[in-house]
Amino acid sequence: MPENTSTEKEKPRIGVFICHCGSNIGGFVDVKAVTEYASTLPDVAYATDNLYTCAEDGLNNIKDSIKEHNLDRVVVSSCTPRTHAPLFQRTCEAAGVNKYMFTFVNIREHCSWVHMKEKEKATQKAKDLVRMGIARARFLEPQEETKVDVTPTALVVGGGVSGMTAALSLANMKFPVHLVEKDQELGGFVKNLHGLMMTTKSANETIKPLIDKVNAHKNITQHLNSHVASVEGFIGNYDVSIGGDGAEAKEVKVGTIIVATGAVPLVPEGLFGYKEHPNVITSTEFEELCNKKELPKLKSVAFIQCVGARGQTVSYCSRICCNVAIKSAMNIAENRDNMLGVTEEKAAETGEVVEEPTAEKKAEEEGSERRRRRRGRGRRDEDEGGEEAAAPSSGVEVTVFNRDVMAYGVEHELEFNKAREKRVKFIRYLPDNLPKVSVKDGKLEVGYFHETLKMERTMPVDLVILSTPLVAQPDAATLSQLLKVPLGQDGFFQEAHVKLRPVDFATDGVYVCGACRGPADITEAVSQAAAAASRAVIPLANGFVQAEALTSRIDEAKCSGCGTCVEACPYSALRKNEEGVTEVIAAACKGCGCCGATCPENAITMTHYTDQQLLAEAKAALEEV
Amino acid sequence: MTEKHHTAHHGKKEAEADKEWEPKIVGFLCNWCSYAGADLCGVSRFQYPTNIRLVRVMCSTRVSPHIVLDVLEAGADGILVGGCHLNDCHYMTGNYHTEKRVNLMKRLLREAGIEEGRLRLEWVSASEGEKFSKVVTEFTEEIQKLGPSKVHTDDMVKAKVAAADDASETFRLKALVGKEFNLLSKGNAYGDTVDPEKLTGIIDVATEEEFERALILELARIRPMSVKQLGMVMEVPTDRVLRHIVLLRQNSMIAMEHPEGFTPLYKTIEIGGEQ
Ligand SMILES: Cc1cc2nc3c(=O)[nH]c(=O)nc-3n(C[C@H](O)[C@H](O)[C@H](O)COP(=O)(O)OP(=O)(O)OC[C@H]3O[C@@H](n4cnc5c(N)ncnc54)[C@H](O)[C@@H]3O)c2cc1C
Ligand code: SF4
Ligand code: SF4
Ligand code: SF4
Question: Which residue of A has its CA nearest to B56?
């Protein structure tokens, strides 16, 4: 064997491994012929076929061949890089070949499985694909992945249930947390609420322990009456400036950021007589009146659902408002904590009964609930007074005008059934025939079209409660720009992937939870917060982030500082330095290649996806053989 | 810079004329959606014609116009660019840029006299395996109908595609198309969004001018030519050619040569070293 002279070293030594994948490839492509062909191509030092390249045998074959044939790059021609690239890359690394010196050729999903009836043509295509992979492999270069240290501190924006939960989780994992809240106190929207669904505790009783824990935690620094004024940097290394009311801005360094800024209820301007009649209020205002014990005297109450939602002001269903209405309807029907303010004297005056449910009555109710549960939902659309239904204990008539009731999940469904047992009426309306709120002889009434009787009816009421959807915070756009994370169509923060990455943003290092991501109840907000904290802690716990080397590289000599790339980069991974030349923040760059295709000076090279590599691969497809 | 060497297979073509012609199609697919869709297509065993050869990129936004034009120049009969559906891009806005870039490629193909149908942009999600097979089948049939690319047989078309390739690399077109999406969606530095029609008009004019200049350079690289000759082959009025020549001379991209009598000839100045 001749000595490795320097010129010989420069010449690529490519190893090609072609997989039969049992008969998955071998059954439709002549793998032996492809292997033979591959071995004739320039720079191929070794070519072989394997029954299963990804099995122990196959992997050992790659490792051994690298040593035996002094291979400096590897082409595996088998299934898809989307599932198997990491495995083969690790194998290469184990045998001393840099993982970026590896190329994947897909001859299963893109060949044998889609050309099952034309073996000859499929074999020809497999040869072409292998030739293309080899052409690419010739231009590969080894790469080093960058490691960046992480500041082991987190920032949480928003001090509602989700923000507090996320902050506590992180703090309990021993990481310092800065909690920024624009209000003067913690608690978020829940502090406006009266009772909560599924619990007999009041809203304030429910969140007080959470607030106390946050207040007591030494790892949490609170910034009340504050907002995020500016954010510079990238995952692991953010410089955040926190502005206060009139106070001087505080500078903090953090490694990861959680957005938990919640949502606000839609104000139903101009809808259903809101603001025209004092007794037409929103469900939020209803909660506040309950808290202040200032409800008007009630004999009949109407809820109207989906006010401004589902194609009216906003397009989506707000999820929570049906359950909120069921909760409030039940509370009224049961005169919970005497919320209707019926005093004993008053009761004597008016002949109303203040009823404490007795033990038997409770047992009876539970029995009927079980029966109901067995029977399922029964007549859910139209339920005006069931035969067996118990009269509401408070004697107040409660009607919920709805399009359909979104009482999702087991617990909410049970609550819904309970409400119907309490003779809460659920009357359905169609979106092209909305209920009308009007005043007749000084009395409020709701006119509606009875879908079963097919006739117009009216119902006198004392109070109309409008269920409006949660909408995005009006200043969400400001924060989204500061953090360079996107808002969705409806103005809520948009996660990286609706199914697989629900609490991540596409930008590494920033996470999202709670109602700022879309309407959520407390249970959901808390689970998301715990999830976001467990995502945000990964870089903090590791102490570093390792970026794939698939980044852009800028040739300083060519860059004119025009800034076209800076604007085009979706991750703010490019910035101009003092010399007016643009540079890449490797830890922030995702390697999408947008800047590379954009730069008017051709100053940008995409690592591992260079023009040269792509063109070699693509043009190899056109060669005649 | 683009490779100027013409690939060897060109001459072989005639010898194979009797062999049934099979279109050669190259597809550039983004890793996250369309490549995954092509994978699912395989997993679900949806069949399609064997003509396409796929190249994986991380995002469709990576596919610079000059890559597509260069591969067309090298003899591809069709090019498929596949990305995620708009608003589903793994890199958020990548495919919006792709759309703009493909528009530029189509403009340039029109200039070069190559059928626009040879380039197709498709959004295929990771779950649209069946759609992928349909797209490839349809596209292959369309290319079959169009026949072999004229690049194989017509040297003028080949020169024009080379010119289109060069034009796509000019500062002016790259900067315009690079900023197009942001100008339309976020506005300029002062927050004013631009009238889309106006911007389209500006890019159209720029494309035509840059293409013509690139073509002059391409033709005058092969042999020195007069303004009149250039005007004739290019089918462009001579005063327009002259204006381009003046500009190209100012930028030292073209030189006057062998004045024969009164008719000056122009020859492209090759920039040495750089490839
Ligand atoms: C009428 C009504 C009744 C409801 N009843 C129930 C119920 O019975 N049970 C239930 O589970 N859920 C109920 N909900 C839902 C509940 O309110 C939400 O699930 C909960 O508030 C979500 O918590 P969060 O922390 O995500 O957001 P929020 O509670 O909205 O908290 C967000 C916090 O972030 C702060 N903030 C916002 N922007 C910024 C900024 N830029 N910088 C700093 N701080 C910022 C806000 O001031 C706020 O403190 C009800 C909602 C409504 C409208
Ligand atoms: S009221 Fe019910 S159906 Fe309507 S938006 Fe709210 S949760 Fe959805
Ligand atoms: S686009 Fe190119 S020339 Fe312009 S700033 Fe970016 S790297 Fe520099
Ligand atoms: S490759 Fe993509 S993420 Fe990286 S700097 Fe360029 S545009 Fe930004």
Answer: A614
ipTM of the complex: 0.91
Q: Which of A407-416, A494-503, A568-577 is most confident? A: A407-416
Q: Against a cut of 0.80, is the pTM above it?
A: no
- One domain, residues A528 and A436: no
- Examine residue A614 and state whether it is found in any structural domain, yes or no: no
Question: Would residue A619 count as lying in a domain?
Answer: no
Residue in this structure with the two tokens 């608690």, named with its chain if needed: A187
The Cα–Cα gap between A50 and A54 comes to 9
Is A114 in Cβ contact with B42 (below 8 Å)? yes
Do A64 and A99 sit in the same domain of this protein?
yes
Tokens representing B83 are 């990305």
A562 in contact with B at a CB cutoff of 8 Å? yes
Q: What is the CATH number of the domain that holds A53?
A: 3.40.50
> What number of H helices and E strands is found in chain A?
17, 28
DSSP H helices, A407-521, are: 409-421, 476-483
Mutate to test the pocket of ligand 3, among A551, A556, A560 (most ligand atoms within 8 A of CB): A560
Q: Which ligand is nearest to the CA of A551?
A: 4
Q: Which ligand is nearest to the CA of A222?
A: 1
End-to-end, the C-alpha distance of chain B in Å comes to 6
Residues A327 and A465 in one domain: yes
Task: Write down the pLDDT at residue A1.
Answer: 41
Distance from C-alpha of A124 to C-alpha of A144, rounded to nearest angstrom:
36
Q: Which tokens hold the place of A446?
A: 């709701």
Q: Ligand 1 center to residue B42 CA distance, Å?
A: 46
Domains of chain B (ranges, CATH numbers): 21-216 (3.40.50), 223-275 (1.10.10.10)
Q: What is the pLDDT of residues A80-122, one digit of tens each?
A: 999 899 999 999 999 999 999 999 999 999 999 999 999 999 9
CA A609 to chain centre: 30
Question: Which amino acid is located at B85 in the chain?
Answer: H
Q: Ligand 1 center to residue A408 CA distance, Å?
A: 20
**Pick from B213, B217, B201: nearest CA to B267:** B217
Q: Which residues of A, range 500-529, sit inside 8 Å of B by Cβ?
A: 506
Question: Which residues does B191 contact at the CB level (< 8 Å), separation at least 6?
Answer: none
Beta bridge partners of B239: none
Q: Confirm or reject: Cβ of A573 under 6 Å from ligand 3.
A: no
Domain identity same for A136 and A210: no
Distance CA B127, CA B39 (A): 10
pLDDT digits (tens, 9 = 90+) for B39-57: 999 999 999 999 999 999 9
Q: Answer yes or no: are the C-beta atoms of A464 and A302 closer than 8 Å.
A: yes
CA torsion through residues A329, A335, A341, A342, sign: positive
Measured CA to CA, the distance from residue A400 to residue A26 in angstroms comes to: 65
